[in-house]
Amino acid sequence: MKIVMLGAPGAGKGTQAKQIAAKYGVPHISTGDIFRANLKEGTELGLKAKVYMDQGQLVPDSLTLELIMDRFSKDDCRNGYVLDGFPRTIPQAEALTKALKDNNDRLDYAIDVDVPDENIINRMSGRRACAKCGGTFHIKYNPTKVEGICDLCGGELYIRNDDKPEIVQKRLVAYHEQTQPLIDYYRNEGILKTVDGTQDVDKVFEDIVAILEA
Ligand code: ADP
Ligand code: AMP
Fold first, then answer.
1. Residue nearest (by alpha carbon) to ligand 1 atom 20
2. For a disulfide at 192, which of 45, 100, 184, 187, Cβ 3.0-4.6 Å?
3. What is the pTM (predicted TM-score) of this model?
4. Residue 131 — very low, low, confident or very high, per pLDDT cuts 50/70/90?
């Protein structure tokens, strides 16, 4: 199973991708998580990516593609993956299509988690992430049992640098200019599916499972 999650920043791609990965036993691959992990470790890649991430801009394709192609070569990708936050530009999508085609392979679905911009700021301002395991919560819509502590691993929660409203606005601009065209790209490939991402987390997941098991 090879799936791409599409949608605006904060639409719930990561929340759903984690559940899909757990249910179907494939890795959840988030380029944003990989950049953040690199930054935490202080690698050159992490430091380069930070400059763009802090400005709400996309990291250049060359850097992103190098990182993801290396990730695809790992053993756990043999039976597929759920991609979250990649591809984010047409050149990235084309590079992915080509890499798969070179192996006589293709994506199964591109699932667009559709959430209008007016809901996004709300989602992002309440997002809390776990520094240890990458778990994602929301102070109102998906609260942890103990405030500030991850339900999954007991790690401390933090507010992402790029979730400040002024940066979120920039990320939305980048999304509409550079990432939204992927909806038509995958529609033309015949694998686009759309779910209403304004519903409860569980209902969105139910809709995705219905697509995957149709
Ligand atoms: P993305 O990966 O698309 O950036 P996340 O999965 O991190 O988005 O979700 C953004 C925020 O919105 C998180 O705080 C998450 O808990 C919350 N969230 C995710 N899905 C829903 C939903 N269906 N309804 C309400 N809040 C949601
Ligand atoms: P995310 O965690 O998916 O919200 O990504 C956080 C930030 O990482 C984005 O705003 C970008 O700066 C960067 N990023 C993540 N994935 C990509 C990608 N595929 N292409 C370019 N930049 C990316």
1. 12
2. 187
3. 0.96
4. confident
